[in-house]
Amino acid sequence: MEAIEAIISRKVQRAFAPTPVEDDKLSKIVEAGRNAMSARNLQPWQFILIRDRARLKQIGELCTTGKFVTDAPAAIVVLKDLSNTRWADVDCAQAVQNMANAGWALGLGTCWVGNFDAAKIGALIEAPTGWAIFTILPFGYPDPKRPPEARPLKRRAEVVHLERVGNQKT
Ligand SMILES: Cc1cc2nc3c(=O)[nH]c(=O)nc-3n(C[C@H](O)[C@H](O)[C@H](O)COP(=O)(O)O)c2cc1C
């Protein structure tokens, strides 16, 4: 899929088909994450690939607002460097967006998980001191019975302006 088409059509996916995710696709997704912009090129991230079914289930059960991780064929846990206090959140978010777009272009969906038991997941993946769990991204093919939902976007005129705020002749 073309980049622009993938970026514009991407939607979060919270239900996955059991079809396995190919290793090379997961590898490309992580490459997209590694290649995100980061302030001063500090790359304050680590990506932990989770493929083991039992671990996916354990992690999913610890995701308060992301139980769907339990049924995903793969996931990526993103760690952020706590010594980089100024921009690490922004940098990691960009890596996440790159990975979501790359996955979508490859036919795979994901959803950002914002609430989880960080201490327990950190222990499971043996996160080193000085690194926090930023998010968990499940990846999988869409469940044909529960395709991703279209979300309402703010009207273009509400958020796009020409030269000055309020001029909508774009
Ligand atoms: C920082 C952030 C945290 C989010 N946390 C959750 C979450 O915990 N659980 C969930 O189901 N979706 C979560 N989402 C997904 C959003 O609800 C979703 O991106 C939004 O509704 C827009 O849908 P779209 O991405 O399909 O355009 C999160 C998204 C972001 C950016």
Features:
3-stranded antiparallel β-sheet; NADH Oxidase; binds flavin mononucleotide; 6 helices; alpha+beta; 3 strands
The count of helical stretches stands at 6
Strand order of the biggest β-sheet: 1-2-3
Low-confidence stretches: none
Oligomer class = single chain
| CATH top level class name | Alpha Beta
The CATH topology is given as NADH Oxidase
Structure description:
It is a single chain. The chain is of the alpha+beta class and 170 residues long. It has a single domain, classed as 3-Layer(aba) Sandwich (NADH Oxidase). It has six helices and three strands. It has a three-stranded antiparallel sheet with strand order 1-2-3, sandwiched between helices. Helix 1 (3-9) packs across helix 4 and helix 2 runs antiparallel to helix 4. The two termini are 27 Å apart. The relative contact order is 0.22. Bound molecules: flavin mononucleotide. Flavin mononucleotide is lined by residues 11-12, 14, 65-66, 111-115, 151. Flavin mononucleotide (FMN) binds at residues 11-12, 14, 65-66, 111-115, 151.
List the helices and strands and how they pair.
Elements: H1 3-9, H2 23-34, E1 45-50, H3 53-61, E2 74-81, H4 88-105, H5 118-125, E3 131-139, H6 156-159
Antiparallel strand pairs: 1-2, 2-3
The chain binds flavin mononucleotide (FMN).
What's a concise summary of this model?
The protein has 170 residues and is α+β, with helices and mostly antiparallel strands. The chain has helices at 3-9, 23-34, 53-61, 88-105, 118-125, 156-159, and strands spanning 45-50, 74-81, 131-139. It has a single domain (3-159), classed as NADH Oxidase, CATH 3.40.109.
